[in-house]
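Would you mind writing out a protein's amino acid sequence and the numbers that encode its backbone to help me picture the idea?
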Amino acid sequence: MKSSSRVLGLLAAAGAAAYVGAVLPALAQSGAPDPEIGKQLFYEHGCYGCHGFNGETGVRDLVATNSPIIADVDAFITYLRLRGDQAPLLPSTRMPNYPESALSDEEARHIYAYVSSFKLHAPEVEDVPTLQAIIESASRPYEPQR
């Protein structure tokens, strides 16, 4: 089952390149994307449920992942559209499907502008004393208590 899903995923990714090249450049842009509008849409569509309120928490973080899905707005919209187009073939409980009838390209651009504004706020590992104590404790050999 996993291998067939992987094959279908690869086919979808290959189709994404054709989709971006053929369809997205023809889309009319109605102005500059607004992160504030994107923030509202992010909440209205429940994106925070998995991605957290700042993109750093939740099941799928969006900050500092180097994901090609959020590399640029065209890849982002393509991912949303392919999920919507492939929903009958590849049902998923991981992320809702967003065909254009559910989320317009303009709305997707606003959401992308908001997601692109996320900054990583996590401290460096060395700056978390409790974590350092755990790592140090875990590196010592185990000696059972008597």
